[in-house]
UniProtKB/TrEMBL annotation:
Phylogenetic lineage: Bacteria, Bacillati, Actinomycetota, Actinomycetes, Micrococcales
Record PANTHER family: HELIX-TURN-HELIX TRANSCRIPTIONAL REGULATOR, ICLR FAMILY, HTH-TYPE TRANSCRIPTIONAL REPRESSOR ALLR
Name of this chain's protein: IclR family transcriptional regulator
Domain of life: Bacteria
Location of the IclR-ED domain: 69-245
UniProt KW Thylakoid keyword: no
InterPro entries: GAF-like_dom_sf, HTH_MetabolicPath_Reg, Tscrpt_reg_IclR_C, Tscrpt_reg_IclR_N, WH-like_DNA-bd_sf, WH_DNA-bd_sf
Keywords: DNA-binding, Transcription, Transcription regulation
Domain HTH iclR-type: 7-68
Cited Pfam families: HTH_IclR, IclR_C
Keyword presence, Transcription: yes
Listed Gene3D superfamilies: 3.30.450.40, Winged helix-like DNA-binding domain superfamily/Winged helix DNA-binding domain (1.10.10.10)
Length: 247
């Protein structure tokens, strides 16, 4: 039974936004209505209101997409979640002796939302808020590994952020298959020469997320991968549990 304190119109509005996100960020009214099992007229009224508030955009082909005002809301939510995760990341960074990062999937890229630095004179640094490609980062590949291959192909067909080159789709798919098999993804000097990164996916947050550890190739060696990946998975499970309780 639904809670008597819930507002049906708000529930339906959230359903529309989530259906848009699940559709890849854009969809037609009739398709959204079919997905969430509401009358087309009801969905149209919701979309019209959201469009007026800038939360949704109407495209030239009359379909709708997620709007720019959601970017600010998402950024604030990501920052808040990143702040709450900071003690957990700091503990992992101390355990591994390397820098730990948390990043969220943001439609066509990954955005770093939190970092805990290693207590070493030589350590890795990634700017919080930086957007990086999906296909050549540990966090990106870890998240892509949770998606079906058809969805991965669609994501890889979009332009990468910044001046990143176009990905080699078959090679990325093969790398993602390896990530699924071993339970973690690897960025082996793909972002920075001399830097290696291991990452796993994290569930339960406001968006698909990746948790990674980065270090010099001289320290983060293949013989340590299994142990490091286990520590990452344990921390990812703790983060996911915390997010589910908070939700």
């Amino acid at each position: 039974m639904a809670s008597p304190h819930r507002v049906q119109s708000v529930d339906r509005t959230v359903d529309v936004l989530e259906a848009l996100a699940d559709a890849g960020g854009a969809a037609r009214t009739k398709d959204l209505a079919a997905t969430i099992e509401l009358p087309i007229a009801t969905v149209h009224r919701i979309l019209t209101t959201l469009t007026a508030r800038g939360l949704v955009l109407q495209l030239a082909d009359r379909s709708y997409s997620l709007g720019p005002r959601l970017v600010r809301l998402g950024a604030v939510a990501a920052h808040q979640v990143g702040s709450e995760a900071q003690p957990v990341l700091a503990e992992l960074a101390e355990t591994l002796g390397e820098t730990v990062n948390l990043a969220f999937f943001t439609r066509d890229s990954m955005t770093y939302v939190a970092q805990a630095e290693a207590a070493r004179s030589m350590r890795m640094f990634t700017e919080v808020g930086r957007r990086v490609p999906l296909y050549n980062t540990g966090v990106g590949k870890a998240v892509l590994a949770t998606f079906p291959d058809d969805e991965v192909r669609a994501l890889l067909s979009q332009p990468a952020p910044g001046s990143a080159p176009k990905p080699d789709v078959p090679a990325v798919l093969a790398e993602i298959a390896r990530a699924r098999e071993r339970g973690y993804a690897v960025d082996d000097e793909e972002q920075e020469i001399g830097v290696r990164c291991l990452a796993v996916a994290v569930e339960g947050g406001p968006a698909p997320a990746g948790l990674s550890v980065s270090g010099p190739t001289s320290r983060l060696v293949p013989d340590s991968f299994a142990e490091v990946a286990q520590a990452l998975r344990s921390t990812a499970a703790n983060l996911a549990d915390g997010w589910r309780r908070a939700g």
